[in-house]
Amino acid sequence: MTRLVVVSNRVPSAAELAPGQEGAAVVGGLVSAVKTLMLRQQGLWMGWSGRTTTRRRSDPPTIELSGGPVELATIDLTLDESNLYYLGFSNRTLWPLFHTFPERVDVRHDTFRAYQRVNERFATSLFPLLGKNDLVWVHDYQLILVGEYLRRLGWKGKIGFFLHIPFPSPDVFEILPWARDLLNGLLEYDLLGFHTQRYRQNFVDVMDREVGGIWNDPHYAVGDRTVKVRKFPIGIEPGTFHDAAMASTTSVSTELSLPNDDDHKIVVGVDRLDYTKGIPERLKAFERMLDRHANMRGRVTLVQVTQPSRSRVREYIEEREKVERLVGQVNGRYSDAAWVPIRYLYRFFPQTQLARFYHDSHVGMITPLRDGMNLIAKEYIAAQGEDPGVLVLSKFSGAAVELTEATQVNPYDTDGTAEQLYQALRMPHTERVRRWRSQMNAVTENTARTWGESFFQELQLS
């Protein structure tokens, strides 16, 4: 049997990978996408333990059984490695660069050197654990160079890489002084996966400009190295969100003490706190809608669920303050004794409760400024019932390519988004059902499991 070895920045808990309850909702789209595959292939999952030490240790990875055929291998990082590799180069350089926020890109040579060292540590720790028939699948922007370091150690087996965030255009990517280093690293993989055709084409265009080679779709060749480049749009397991929504017995209106009125509308937004998610722009569009359509005042509530993220990073602290200031501004301007226009919930909620939020809302407002895919948009569609809500979706999300019947908006256009939101709140039942069915077909066609299986099969053939 071919063993699948997954490498990611962090590993899931042993409980999440234990056999049984494969249909249950789990935290993280990647886990749900590859769990069944990992159980079948008796896999190994390697990543950072999340622990930091004061000094670098040369101990071999810690191996933990998940209660089944999947093993977990973890390494610790030093505090300096965590700060420079993870908070530094990964999240203050690559994250804004790949999401096309060039003004936020922090270029520092010490953080790139730390990124190289940690990627090499991942490879050095993993190499002794590999068997000759293993397939290695590396995930995301934090670990782009792992494949190259495995090759230097002598690994001849198949290695695939999937990027879970956007890949930018050449004009943006070439801002990075080490652009060619990362591209040469990506050439060491047998298979590269991106969410959409646009990101895939951006990679090809960047390679043409920065490295130069021969593109013979789906292969890109430079010298003696050839990599296969495909798109694999990741999905969800739609049944889990539908079942979770149906299982809840408490409505969102009751739980949040919203106006008990059949004509009262609920708009829901669910995001991790991040400047790429467009939360301030969404709040401004909601405020503009109330400005322009006085008939909606007192009749609609925006429930904004914001999950804490990278709370020690300055940019994220500033983003939280900006969001909270806007919430206070709108509520201070429009609230009355019986109505508060925005309910802002800054905390984590379990998937089951989020599914109920999706189901009970009249509009799901998912409006990132840039997003690799955005699985919340697909979760929203999956959680709907006989009286479906309307998905208002940013055209800058990867999901917009598949969910073409969503009400697509440009989140930078405050007036346009406000008007589209107003129309979504007034959309007739027949049109809502027609749009939802089309989007549900797309969600059902590309599930988490089909994504994992298709990448695994393609890697075997590469």
The CATH architecture category of the largest domain equals 3-Layer(aba) Sandwich
Major sheet summary line = 10 strands, mixed
* Percentage beta strand: 15-25%
CATH class of the largest domain: Alpha Beta
Mean pLDDT: 93
Please give the share of residues in helix. Answer: 40-55%
Structural class: alpha/beta
Tell me, briefly, the overall form. Answer: globular
CATH homologous superfamily annotation of the largest domain: Glycogen Phosphorylase B
The number of helical elements comes to 17
CATH topology of the largest domain: Rossmann fold
Radius of gyration: 23 Å
Report low-confidence residues grouped into runs of 5 or more.
Answer: 21-27
Number of strands: 16
What is the spatial order of strands in the main beta sheet? 3-4-2-1-5-6-7-10-9-8
Can you characterise this structure?
α3 (79-98) packs across α4 (109-126), α9 (238-247) packs across α14 (375-382) and α11 (279-292) crosses α15. By secondary structure, this protein is of the alpha/beta class. It has two domains: 4-235 and 447-461, 3-Layer(aba) Sandwich (Rossmann fold), CATH 3.40.50.2000; 238-445, Rossmann fold, CATH 3.40.50.2000. Helices cover 43% and strands 19% of the residues.
